[in-house]
Amino acid sequence: MNTKIQKRKLGSSGLEVSALGFGCMGLSFGLGQATDKQNGISIIRAGFERGITFFDTAEAYGPYTNEELVGEALAPFRHEVVIATKFGFKLENGVIAGTDSRPSTIRAVAEASLKRLKTDVIDLFYQHRVDPNVPIEDVAGTVKDLIQEGKVKYFGLSEAGAQTIRRAHAVQPVSAVQNQYSIWTREPEALVLPVCEELGIGFVPWGPLGTGFLAGTITADTKFDSATDLRATFPRFTPEALKANMPVVEMLNKIARRKDVSTVQIALSWLLAQKPWIVPIPGMDKVEYIDDNLKSIDLELTKEDLQEIDSELSKINVQGARLNEGLLSMSE
After folding, report:
1. Is 61 among the residues known to form the active site?
2. Residue 85, beta-bridge partner list
3. Share of the chain residues as helix, strand and coil, in percent rounded to the nearest 5
4. Which of 41, 101, 19, 57 is nearest to 295 (CA)?
5. Which has the least CB within 10 A, 99, 139, 180, 306?
6. How do 202-203 and 95-99 pair as beta strands?
7. Which of 61, 64, 126, 181 is catalytic?
8. C-alpha dihedral sign at 111, 117, 122, 124
9. How confident is the model at residue 229 (pLDDT cuts 50, 70, 90)?
């Protein structure tokens, strides 16, 4: 039984999804030990039962295992959900080794992803990172062909800059841009959000809870396993930076206590309040996290609340780069 929750349109492309999506990566990859497969399936299905219709994965997560998990979990109700996946990383022996968005690679990834996702069409196909060696017009043109062939429905870009978005959109309309965006990562506000608004493109914040930091459960003493957790390499997650950045969480906690809600709900509600075409995709590896996150959709932050958050944030100097140098170098 799929509960109905509020929907949002991702820009003017006609793509409509639940106001909150489900970032599936962490169930298999990148944020610690992978979840047991059966447990992962039950968590994804619990999200669907509670009304989530937008699920995000990628070839690179695992690699491959996350797509397989998502495909199996969503197979019984495939036609009631929107599945987003991504191409564009060069994978060698199961490890990301740069970018590869050559047209032949995009086509090969699409075919492989269709099989792993147990589907005949990819709803939203993102370029995972911009490839400096392949003109974005060639990338957009290849996805346009896949759309005409009925293998893909919508085209997206991830970690792309404003000019890249414009150039791609001129060849094949971009339906969604997925960049990192949260209360403590506000770079998209300068150029990317305005170009999305101008061109009618939806925006999908990844890491909407600051890759876990804004949930309030990480302390300056939290250790990240470098073998399984990408945050072990992120400058913002060193013990010194975590300690320096705690005022962000303390500020959210204060507002959450006043409203008798969770810190997570404040962080997600803040994103939802920025634009009506923004759909965050928090990662969720427990059913109670899904229930907590979904409450943010109905939480109204007042103009005063939003002004207070801006005012308090302006006094905090967030320490540390949001990603490691290798990943930042692939972002525009």
Report:
1. yes
2. 125
3. 45, 15, 35
4. 19
5. 306
6. unpaired
7. 61
8. negative
9. confident
